[in-house]
Design goal:
It is a single chain. This protein has 466 residues and is of the alpha/beta class. The chain folds into three domains: 13-278, Aldolase class I (TIM Barrel); 293-361, no CATH class; 374-465, no CATH class. Helices cover 25% and strands 20% of the residues. It is built from twelve helices and 21 strands. It has a five-stranded mixed sheet, with no helix packed on it. It has a four-stranded antiparallel sheet with strand order 9-10-11-16, with helices on both faces. A four-stranded antiparallel sheet has the order 18-17-19-20. Helix 7 (234-242) packs parallel to helix 8 (258-277). The longest helix has 20 residues, at 258-277. The structure holds zinc ion. Residues 376-466 are annotated as: Disordered.
């Protein structure tokens, strides 16, 4: 809780100090930005009387149960003005993300999924400017109006909106409803898989996140309780793969799981642009691919949800992750031939698995393939692909390329120089490229006696082994 009363959206300065200082300390000491959980219904009855939902007798509809207070009426312009004014004040201090929650509503004769009988009491106020009683649509539109006004004034703020009728379960309004309109919300809530995220995965409930990603590109936000995760961080990676905006909590430095999750978070940072902004390719429920084709990057994330070790083998269309049709890739865990990719990953029980397994190698296959695509330079060369430049990184003179460590030479030139058809080395800087590790480009007959494992020759005569 950060506000003076939940639902008030007024920063609790007395307890937390000034908001400006709080935002500054988060940024300077932890490298974080500030997100706030914004409640619509409020725990106090002391606000302007015009903001509250009213029953047929004109009384405030009380909020009882998990919270106590008063339901608000989002169609009330008094509430809209008050909420916009208070949220704007927070945003001016540097808050960067707002999660809109607690705006459940229903009217008699509809089933909006709420079990709370009280919340079934509609707003009968004649002073709010809505139908009497207020319709579900008017309620939903009132919440969205606040979001619109906030977005117009603060276009950089990120907004997650829970279902504006059913709240956390996110299951009343169609998921696409009013997303993508100008100044609308950015993200959905991850279906409440926050309490025991590990059990939700093992029970199968949270597999719906995979289905969601097949259907929608609207980002999900979810914060998860890691206290029930295992030492392989299975739950962490499942939600990292299916929710583009992830919050975590539930473990402390003294907990057994702390170091494992700390390492997972470090790895998450390496992969974050892929997981948060990449294209999601669902091969099946246990094999997800995140790819940024324009950057030539991808990662495969596989899951073993069973209690015994298994080898996950799947094939998929290589072009679905940006691998050119004529490319040939043969690396441990992934083989690509004639446009078909075959993944084979051995996964311990109740664990995730990655391909590539090393964080620094995740870009390699795609960077190399990107080299073979026509570039502006190539067009000036009559459409012929520009040979990649390679730099030998062997410590001594290499038996095949004949070059010393650090020398850069186009491989075709190396062939002409009679120093063998194979190049072993590290990809050197070229136009728009930086680094990577090239294995061997070698025809089988040339490999004999070289001590280098031969590769297969693709139809295009090029072969890259990593
Ligand atoms: Zn009302």
């Amino acid at each position: 809780m950060w506000d003076i009363v939940e639902g008030s959206s007024v920063w609790d300065r007395e307890r937390l100090g000034s908001l400006d200082d709080f935002v500054r300390r988060l940024r300077d000491q932890l490298g974080l930005r500030l997100s706030l959980h914004v409640m619509s219904h409020t725990k106090t009855l002391d606000e302007d009387p015009a903001i509250y939902r009213r029953d047929q007798d004109g009384d405030i509809v009380l909020w009882r149960g998990l919270y106590t207070g008063g339901y608000i009426c989002p169609a009330s312009t008094t509430w809209q003005d008050l909420k916009v004014r208070r949220l704007s004040e927070l945003l001016r201090s540097g808050v960067s993300f707002l999660m809109f929650d607690f705006h459940d509503y229903t009217v008699e004769g509809t089933d909006a999924g709420t079990s709370d009988e009280i919340s079934r009491t509609a707003c009968w106020s004649k002073d709010h400017g809505h139908s009497v009683p207020m319709s579900i649509e008017e309620h939903s539109a009132g919440v969205l109006e606040v979001i619109h006004r906030i977005k117009r004034a603060h276009p950089d703020v990120l907004i997650e909106a829970h279902d504006r009728i059913a709240g956390g379960l996110q299951d009343y309004l169609p998921l696409y409803y009013e997303h993508g309109r100008p100044d609308s919300f950015d993200e959905h809530w991850g279906f409440e898989y926050m309490w025991n995220s590990y059990l939700d995965l093992l029970s199968g409930k949270a597999l719906s996140l995979y289905e969601y990603n097949l259907a929608y590109e609207i980002p999900l936000y979810l914060h998860i309780n890691l206290a029930f995760d295992n030492e392989n961080c299975l739950a962490f990676w499942w939600y990292a793969s299916t929710c583009r905006h992830l919050g975590i909590g539930g473990v402390r430095p003294s907990d057994e799981l702390w170091s494992a999750h700390r390492a997972a978070v470090e790895r998450y940072h390496e992969l974050k642009s892929l997981l948060a902004s990449g294209r999601f390719v669902g091969v099946d429920v246990d094999l997800h691919i995140h790819t940024l084709p324009n950057e030539g990057r991808a990662v495969l994330l596989a899951f073993n949800r069973s209690s015994s070790e298994r080898v996950l083998q799947r094939t998929f269309d290589a072009s679905s992750i940006g691998i050119p049709e004529n490319a040939v890739v043969e690396v441990e865990g992934l083989i690509v031939r004639e446009g078909v990719a075959a993944a084979s990953l051995s996964i311990p029980p109740l664990a995730p698995s990655f391909f590539p397994s090393s964080g620094t190698r995740i870009q390699l296959p795609y960077r190399l393939m990107a080299l073979r695509r026509a570039t502006t330079d190539d067009r000036h060369r009559g459409g012929r692909p520009r040979p990649p430049r390679v730099r030998c990184d062997r410590p001594r003179r290499h038996p095949l390329c004949g070059r010393r460590s650090g020398s850069a030479v186009p491989h075709r030139r190396a062939e002409r120089l009679g120093r063998g058809p194979g190049i072993h080395g590290r990809l050197a800087a070229g136009p728009g490229r930086s680094r990577g590790r090239v294995g061997v480009r070698l025809r089988p007959e040339a490999a004999r006696g070289s001590g280098v494992r031969p590769g297969r020759v693709s139809p295009g005569g090029e072969y890259w082994e990593f």
